[in-house]
């Protein structure tokens, strides 16, 4: 409510944080008061500000990237504070401020581990939207369903935070009650708060009313209102007030020469947002304190109510403010450490279980079935490239342990079969990188590991499971004699004349059953089919190839062949657009072959969908070699749909 009121009166706080929320009454959360308007700025509706300021953990993305911003930065800060109260953690938490800023700008807050209600999550996501125009305003947040939910507790901080954060909550409650009894003074219009030439060691904090700053001869050079300190250190000139050098008032509220927000930045709306200015931060004023002889006169224009503070009183306010901030940061830090330990223990237990499951599947594959379909069914679902990398590493380590040519061949064939289906390129890279990182340790148990790993790397390169740039990248990422020897050997094997043929035969496997052999078979089959149109023979070859989990490559190569033939025909006949039904006969026959193969399940629906997806993804690269491939593909799609050949 206080922040909404501030915004309605044209004031942006710009430093909202939990440390700036205090209680006027012990134990009464209804008495929450917003304090410390040192960075507050006046802004009319839709007016944008540009000054970078605030506390890093609460800063909105638009501030960090240097864009003009509005009052929506306060809504973001409210979202950060609410996140901390509901979870006991920061939505973005890095010790390094550059990393913190990068996370706030580019990453999303994690809500997976939060146990609050769906309504609370929806409110948090609305307040923490990166786009200021899509972010909930404070007024909109007040209308959110969460505030009307009877299950929403009124004592959020006391019921939804960890034990350590409850301690901080009690400190915040005690802050107001520990406030020393500061003297309050009333000045009638015309009375002087400060007189030029007098000596004093205290300042006034104006609670209400207006004062004039009078220079020599009674010339009015400035105005002081609620929220301003008067009587502290000499200050510089700010805005257009032309304050004399050696003036004894602060020309801006609380900021005291650190951030200039203009003479009218603090008005009655700011004061009303916090009814007890004794709780305002006085850090800047304390730092600027010099005492001594006054050089200007401060005279009440209206009835003025003020609080009189000496150095001890101001030191108390600063100390209390720092104690609360330090305790809150310590509580969050302890909570993060506790959560991190629990997550690490849970992750370790999960990885141990995952490795055991992988070992069971790999052992069965090597010992008995050699059935890829069964392996795919039994493999536990990976949660990302890291899990897939663990499987790849376990597979190769098992092969190293058995040190059999048959096992090495089976391991590489399995990687070929799984690649592109349940094994991603990132997962394969992760596993190979893990093997390279642990090569020195592996060599202690398996002296032959470097030589075997070099062959594995060369094999996955020949089978096109990795890009040609993969081996050079490994050479940059891993240094050391063992790693360099492995990479140099693998590169030499791949680049040697007839190297691919030798690599495919090194473990006695020959070409049969490899993906490289399958690709050659697919190309020969398609070329022969275009000339002979023998569907039965083509289906027989596909069946005898016995690689049902690599049929996606057949689909991709068939569709590419159709597009290439059609582009070539149109180029030769200078055909532009025209009848979609004029797809050449060879293209129609290839599409018919694919439709027939799907109909008798030689090509499964999953393999067809995967092959189609891979082909579509490859179109941008294909157009570099085959201009207008994308345009021709669109025509082929429409032709196939119009003839009901099959769904493309």
TrEMBL record:
Sequence ranges assigned to domain Cyclic nucleotide-binding in this UniProt record: 187-232
- Name the UniProt key words of this record, in alphabetical order: cGMP, cGMP-binding, Cytoplasm, Nucleotide-binding, Nucleus, Repeat
Q: What InterPro entries is this protein classified in?
A: ARM-type_fold, cNMP-bd_dom, cNMP-bd_dom_sf, Initiation_fac_eIF4g_MI, Kinase-like_dom_sf, PDCD4, Prot_kinase_dom, RmlC-like_jellyroll
GO biological-process terms attached to the record? negative regulation of DNA-templated transcription
Q: Which GO terms describe its cellular component?
A: cytoplasm
Q: Which PROSITE patterns match?
A: CNMP_BINDING_3, MI, PROTEIN_KINASE_DOM, PROTEIN_KINASE_ST
Q: Which SUPFAM superfamilies match?
A: ARM repeat, cAMP-binding domain-like, Protein kinase-like (PK-like)
Q: Which Pfam families match?
A: MA3 (PF02847), Pkinase (PF00069)
Q: Where is this protein localized, as stated in its record?
A: Cytoplasm
What GO molecular function annotation could you give as one example from this UniProt entry?
cGMP binding
Which residues does UniProt assign to the signal peptide?
A: none
Tell me where in this chain the Protein kinase domain is found: 1-147
Q: What sequence ranges are listed for the domain MI?
A: 353-476, 517-648
The UniProt similarity line reads: Belongs to the PDCD4 family.
Name of the protein in its database record: cGMP-dependent protein kinase
Originating species:
Pycnococcus provasolii
